[in-house]
Specification:
307 residues; alpha+beta; Aminopeptidase; Nuia; 5-stranded antiparallel beta sheet; 4-stranded antiparallel beta sheet; elongated
């Protein structure tokens, strides 16, 4: 069957078949791992085509697996590397449909320079994803329509950030010099002052963009859970206290404030669309990110405690 399988983009005419496939797959295949109450919450009815049209509108890529004119599977890939829906017809299980869908997803993800793929995977689909090279990052529970579901956050790394161009390597070196104070009198490695002072480090991701980074993209690139708390802070506001000279500053404090001003000026000169994200509640991972004129995403990161 798989030798005549076609993986293509979704079309409006596919929506009625997708609606039935989704409902029947949940109630036939996932029934082995979930209760009747859970199945009813998951797929209470065959949704109208308008439901799927609205859902797919905000998804970067929706794939359909077609065999002899019949839709036998579909899957979603978002710009963050997140795989949303991934369903194979209940009568086409273990026939290679899911594997071919995943091959297409990985091919497109690599062409977009995504570092990893990740998905919230059901108990039923766990073994399939493991066979495709995904690993469990954590087990979690999802509350959906008032019913709790056990699932796994699973991910697969596609590439490392080692294959960077000479220009990107040079930028990393110069930014590291700014952070460590190399070449500046009376300067040491910059730390972000909080209850636990922590140094900064440079991040260069194998990801290109000319736009502001979304929260989902940041969480994917930094391998955080999608439900973690994130606050975005204005770039200059974030660094305001660190760059301001105070009357009580001694020689060391003046040098640190000067070094932070040098850092801010360097980032403004080298990167566009600068953003600051605080990830977490009290124990924070802080990311300052922007992109080069060649659209390469670059950032610096540190940790902080806020109470």
């Amino acid at each position: 069957m798989t030798n005549t399988l076609l993986i293509r983009d979704v079309q409006a005419s596919d929506l009625p078949e997708i609606a039935c496939l989704f409902y029947e797959t949940v109630h036939h295949v996932n029934a082995q791992d979930y209760s009747a109450e859970q199945l009813k919450a998951w797929a209470p009815r065959v949704y109208e085509s308008s439901y799927w049209e609205e859902r797919f509108r905000d998804i970067q890529q929706v794939y359909v697996a077609e065999n002899q004119g019949q839709v036998v599977g579909f899957a979603e890939l978002e710009s963050t590397g997140h795989i949303g829906c991934f369903y194979v017809h209940h009568q086409r299980q273990r026939c290679g449909v899911g594997a071919q869908l995943m091959v297409q997803i990985e091919t497109d993800a690599k062409s977009q320079n995504l570092l990893r793929l990740f998905s919230e995977v059901s108990l039923t689909a766990r073994l399939f994803f493991e066979r495709q090279g995904f690993k469990i990052e954590r087990q979690q529970e999802r509350l959906y329509r008032g019913v709790r579901f056990k699932q796994f956050l699973m991910a697969k790394r596609l590439a490392d950030s080692e294959n960077l161009s000479g220009l990107e390597t040079d930028l990393r070196r110069r930014l590291t010099e700014v952070l460590t104070g190399d070449g500046l009198d009376r300067c040491a490695a910059l730390q972000w002052v909080s209850e636990t002072d922590h140094p900064w480090s440079v991040c260069v991701w194998n990801f290109q963009t000319s736009k502001l980074l979304t929260v989902d993209q940041l969480l994917s690139l930094t391998e955080h859970a999608l439900d973690v708390s994130v606050r975005e802070v204005d770039f200059l506001t974030f660094f305001e206290s660190a760059t301001r000279h105070q009357d009580w500053h001694g020689e060391e404090e003046v040098a640190i404030a000067t070094q932070y001003r040098h850092l801010v000026q360097f980032l403004q000169a080298e990167l566009l669309n600068l953003q600051v994200f605080k990830v977490g509640e009290q124990a924070l991972d802080i990311y300052v990110v922007g992109h080069t004129r060649d659209q390469q995403l670059v950032g610096i990161t540190t940790k902080a405690i806020e109470t």
